[in-house]
Design a protein that fits this description.
By secondary structure, the chain is of the alpha/beta class. The protein has helices spanning about 1-30, 40-55, 70-80, 90-95, 115-125, 140-150, 160-165, 175-180, 210-215, 240, 260-265, 285, 305-315; strands at about 30-35, 150-155, 185-190, 195-200, 225, 250, 275, 295-300, 320-325. Strand 7 (about 275), helix 12 and strand 8 form a beta-alpha-beta unit. It binds heme C.
Length: about 350
């Protein structure tokens, strides 16, 4: 009996490890190392830096200083770059100013370019500011090569396209993000080219509870992935969770939530992934999810959900994949009684 329990526990651990890897594979595909032989200096190295640090103010939505930096044409029109002449490029002048200079770009403290990013931009302009040349077609000194070797490239919009949300104009309120961070929740930008955030309570799962869920509400327009699995979250925070309307991915597995939580999760109309395995949810809870037309994956093993209930939801949401785990050989109808030794 004990052995059987142990095996079950090990199987669960193994299976959750595998599903974790599968879930992350798609995010990995969207990010890869920069390849100096095949990749272009502008498209794969410079444009991502400008996209992460400059085009929020000088881009498609805003033209601060009456200029934009998000396309080749706009950069050329801005006349802030002179190929081969860093000393005549006003863009270089502005990014190289000391941090406390009021003209330094970007102007906000938290978004400063790193020393490496400044070096790379200087290098590209010194090398002629070509928009077409591959990295390997330029002169790449060792220090620049080392920086490039550490770069990761993700197609602009690849991650946001993956969950079909419009990109945000403004980053989340730094004070609100700071408070979440201070509570020990891992909160970060989902990718370099998006302002959407992911939050993960895995490191503090034991102490994470409904009070901390309240901290997430102020960043609700930015929070799109949330993992509070194995945490102390309960139905008490259901109405707070129901406000996190930009969530596309939600991990609630192995918590004490019930159908009451699903009633509010049913309002998260952007949700594509929901994991409630190892909770007390039932078919009645699934009824609340019928309006989640974007839902693609639902994990419900080791819950009170039956095949009939799952099928009903599948009818309501075409294309939904519901993972019920394996079929147990002997289904126990009654919940386990506490053992009397
Ligand atoms: C938070 C908004 C913001 C961000 C981010 C930002 N800028 Fe600016 N930028 C401005 C504003 C506002 C001005 C106009 C006022 C000024 O010249 O200081 C400006 C002006 C400039 C100018 C002068 C334009 C001219 O015609 O002389 C350059 C060059 C520039 N920015 C480059 C950059 C670069 C490069 C980045 C990214 C590394 C960047 N900026 C990021 C707001 C921003």
């Amino acid at each position: 009996m004990l052995l059987q329990k142990l095996i079950t526990a090990l199987t669960i651990t193994a299976i959750s490890a595998v599903s974790f890897m599968i879930q992350n594979a798609s995010a990995e595909d969207e990010k890869r190392k920069v390849n100096p032989e095949a990749d272009k200096a502008y498209e794969h190295v410079i444009a991502p830096i400008l996209a992460s640090r400059c085009t929020g103010c000088h881009g498609p939505n805003k033209a601060k200083g009456k200029m934009r930096l998000h396309t080749k044409d706009e950069i050329q029109k801005s006349k802030t770059i002179v190929g081969g002449k860093t000393e005549e490029s006003t863009l270089i002048e502005r990014i190289m100013l000391p941090d406390d200079d009021e003209d330094v770009m970007p102007p906000e403290d938290k978004d400063r370019l790193s020393a490496e990013q400044k070096k790379i931009i200087n290098w590209w302009i010194a090398e002629g500011a070509s928009f077409d040349k591959k990295i390997s077609e330029l002169n790449v000194p060792d220090d620049i090569g080392a920086i490039i070797a550490g770069l990761v490239y993700s197609k602009p919009g690849a991650i946001t396209k993956a969950f079909n949300l419009p990109e945000l104009a403004q980053p989340a309120d730094p004070g609100a993000v700071g408070a979440i961070d201070k509570a020990g929740v891992l909160i970060m930008q989902l990718a370099q080219d998006t302002k959407y955030l992911s939050a993960n309570a895995i490191n503090i799962a034991k102490s994470f509870n409904d009070a901390q869920v309240k901290l997430l509400v102020p960043v609700k327009s930015h929070l799109t992935w949330l993992d509070v699995s194995r945490s102390g979250i309960t139905d008490q925070s259901a109405s707070d969770v129901g406000q996190l309307s930009m969530l596309t991915k939600l991990h609630l597995e192995n918590t004490s939530i019930t159908d009451q939580m699903l009633q509010h999760v049913g309002k998260l109309s952007n949700l594509e992934y929901l994991n409630v395995y190892g909770t007390k949810v039932t078919d009645a809870g699934l009824e609340h999810l019928k309006g989640l037309k974007k839902l693609k994956k639902l994990y419900v093993w080791q819950t009170g959900i039956t095949e009939a209930g799952a099928n009903k939801l599948k009818e309501a949401i075409p294309g939904l994949d519901i993972n019920m785990g394996w079929k147990e050989p002997k289904k126990e109808d009654k919940p386990e009684e506490p053992k009397k030794e």
